[in-house]
From TrEMBL:
This is MFS transporter. Pfam families: MFS_1. The lineage of its organism: Bacteria, Bacillati, Actinomycetota, Actinomycetes, Micrococcales. Keywords: Cell membrane, Membrane, Transmembrane, Transmembrane helix, Transport. Residues 15-415 form the Major facilitator superfamily (MFS) profile domain. It comes from Microbacterium schleiferi. Gene3D superfamilies: MFS general substrate transporter like domains. PROSITE patterns: MFS (PS50850), SUGAR_TRANSPORT_1 (PS00216). It is found in: Cell membrane.
Amino acid sequence: MTAATPPPRLGLRENAPQFALLVAVNALVGGMVGQEQTVLPLLARDVFGITGYTMVLSYVAVFGVTKAISNWFAGTLSDRFGRKPVLLAGWLVAVPVPLMLIWAPDWGWVVAANALLGVSQGLTWSTTVVMKIDLVGPRQRGLAMGLNEAAGYGAVAVSSLLAGYLASEYGLRPAPFLLGIAYTALALIITGIFVRETHGHARAEAAQLAPATSRPRQDADLTHRRIWFLASIREPALASASAAGLVNNLNFGLSWGLFPLLFATRDLSTAQIALLFALYPGVWGIGQLFTGALSDRIGRKHLVTGGMALQAIALIIIGAGSGLGAWATGTILLGLGTAMVYPTLLAVVGDVAHPAWRARAVGVYRVWRDLGYAVGAVIGGIVADLLSLQAALWVAAAISAVVAAIVAGRMYETLSTQHRNGASAT
C-alpha cells in the first residue's frame, strides 16, 4: 500500500454494498441446488425407472466428490489469482447444467450434470464465503457467515418449493430446470459487472495483525501440506470443525436423496413432498440469521455441540415417524440443528486461520465438509437397500451423536482467539 492509497476498510457497514451483492450471488448459488432436490429423486423413479437407493443417490455422491475437490482449488486459486476470477469461472461451469438435466436421455447425463454442478458449487460458494470474510474482518465474522449461509440455504428452500410446484403443474421436465437457466444468467451479469475483488481486504487485515503478534512471521507462510495437516488432524478446532462439517453434510446428502422417497411412501403429493423437504433448508436458512450473530456473542463451541446433538434427535424423529406431522417436526428440528452448526463452523475457521492462508484453510474445511455428501449418499444408499429407509436415518443419527461428543471433548472456544493472527495453528 502507498501513502496515496489508503488500505481498504474492514467491516460489514463499511462494505455494505459489496456484501449485499455477494449475499445475492450466494442466494443464486443455493438456488442451483434447490431446483434439483425435490425433482431428481422423483425423476429417477418415474422417468428412468431406477429403484435401487444406492443408484438413485449416485448423483449426490458425484456432486459431493467434485464439489469437495473444487473447494480446495477455489482456495488456492483465489489466493493466487484473486477471488473474482474464481467466482466468475464457477458460474461459467454451471451454464450447461440445467440444459443437461432438461435433455438427459438417461441417468448418466444426470450424474454428469451433477459432477459439473459440484465443481461450480465448490468454486462459487467457497469464494463468496472467503470474500465476505475478507470484507468484514474479525469483529462480525459469525454474523457475516450467518447472512451468507442464510441466503444460500434460504434459496435452496425457496427453489425446492418452486421447483416442486412447477413439477406438479407442468411435469418433471423441463419447467423446474428453467429456474437454473435464469439463475446462471443473472449471476454472470452481477459477478461480471458489479462484484469487486476483495483480496486486498485480506492483505490489509494481515498487515494490521502482523505487528501485534509475538509469533514468528512464518505463521503467514505455511505450505499447502501443513495447512492440510492442521485443518484435518493436528489443530483441535480446525480438525473438529472439519469432522463436524463432514457429518453435517452427510445428513444433508442423505436427506437430499432419501427424504422425497421416504415421504412418497405415504402417497403424499409432489407439492406436499416439496413443502416437507423445503422445511429443512428453510429453517436452516432463516435460523442462520440469528445463530451466526449469536456465535459472536456467546462463542462457537457450544452451538456446534448442541447443533450436532439436535440433528441426531431430529433424524430419530424422522426415521420413527410415519406421517406429515412427525416428518414436519423432524425436518424443522433438523434445520434448527444445522443452523446452529453451519455458519459457526465457518466462523471457527476464520477465527483460527491467518488471513494469508485463510482461503486455503476454508478450502480444506469445505473439502471435508462436502465429502459428507458422498459419504451420506453411499452409507444411506447401502443401508437403505440392505435394511430400510428408516435404518439409514438411524445410522446417520448415531454418527451425528458421536461427532457431537468429539466436538465437546476436543474443540476449544475460538472466539477469544480471533485476534491472535492464527497463532494457535503453529
